[in-house]
Amino acid sequence: MSDADLIIIGAGPAGMAAAAAAAQGGARVLLLEEQPRAGGQIFRNVGVNGGARRYLGTDYAAGAALVRALEHPSITAEFSATVWRIEAGPTVLWSRDGASQISRARHVLLAGGAQERPVPFPGWTLPGVMPAGAAQILMKTAGLLPRDAVLAGAGPLLYLIAAQLIDAGAPPKALVETQTPAMMARALPHLPRALLAAPTLVKGLGLLRKIRAAGVARYTGASGFRATATEDGGIAFSFAAKGRTHHLTTPLLLTHQGVVPATHMSRAAGIAQGWNAAQQAFQPQVDAWGRTDLPGLHVAGDGAGIGGAEAAQAAGRLAARDILHLSGRISQDARDQTSALDRVALRRAMAIRPFLDAAYAPLPEFRSPPDDTIVCRCEEVTAAQIRQSLRDGANGPRQVKTATRAGMGPCQGRMCDLTVLGILASCGIKPATTRIRSPLKPIALGELAALTPTQETSA
Ligand SMILES: Cc1cc2nc3c(=O)[nH]c(=O)nc-3n(C[C@H](O)[C@H](O)[C@H](O)COP(=O)(O)OP(=O)(O)OC[C@H]3O[C@@H](n4cnc5c(N)ncnc54)[C@H](O)[C@@H]3O)c2cc1C
Asked: Atom 33 in ligand 1: which residue has the minimum CA distance?
């Protein structure tokens, strides 16, 4: 048996804050992170970059304190450690360097974060078209800066990446935004509540000012995205805006339509999910402490519902204190009293979500794309094939998967399941989740064979 009290999966803001709080409360923590270093999406590589790569901003550099807090004698952090199965118990199976290990603890906190919402349109699978967040990962890990990139889509992260590129001396060629005046009008009633998160709004306005001052061409109300390859290996991007069709050429088209909870881990564990209509995505059902319907399993951070880095840290600490309480280390009163500030921080951070969800809602054409769009990249299944499967009698995501193989590739539907749901919704079929099977991430058969039932690791 492992002698960790708590296993945390994911060393982003939620997982790091939870690990520190749990260790300070006397728990022995095993932190498993598939990346080589702590940080998660927002603070990726911050321990190495520190104050260098200043274009990533002061918010980014601030993450170094969370990474330092992991240096605690009660925290064992394992990096390049990919969790591929969670069983009742709870038991966690994870892989590193081609060898798997089994770890057990009375409590497991899933802090696996978010993923970018796919942006499917004809041509989105071409080399030279990639998610904007993926380009930002390359900026954070390798210092790679895209030149003359076109940023297209919607959401605060698109503005942040545009501003980071400007500060890095590689301003984007153009910003093509899909939000419409009607979306902004729908968002306005949520503005008074969003003022609770005034510093975030102010930061957002600052990003827009920077983009304007840099003279980046901006198109709004854009739709009808199409990309084709040019002879010199670039991308010809066309879209409609304000009644005209525009054509841009670029070496790199970076797309984005917001982020959604990464639910594969919680779905594979069997945690009940609920549909978030405002975000058009599933998320695990958790209570105010991150407890799920399964004993021993908590979820915190963006993986439980999108809230951003400050909300993730607060939620991580709340879950950690609940686990300290459940394991008899602190009383319920102590849990509640020490959590008051985090509750306020969480409420403030979440106050802006309804405004953002309405203002930067994904376009219907991305939820249910044109027939000639590849929806499942792994199995190369088009929107037309999915619609045909519905005409042939499929009436839910499982039947579509069986009929077309959409979602059966190595990414297990991460890049297509929301689009399949969007196409189903356009035909009046309500969203339903599918169970995710282990392994969560691909592992070699030999690794499975080498795993003996007695093989365990301790923190
Ligand atoms: C691509 C991308 C870029 C983003 N960039 C920014 C940004 O610059 N600024 C900003 O404010 N917000 C950004 N966000 C939003 C950001 O994710 C959240 O605000 C915040 O990081 C959420 O924190 P978290 O701890 O919940 O999750 P994350 O920070 O995502 O951390 C989750 C961690 O879990 C690990 N993990 C996941 N699955 C496994 C597994 N099976 N085994 C082991 N480890 C696993 C991941 O490697 C990751 O380190 C970005 C989101 C995405 C998807």
From this structure: 10
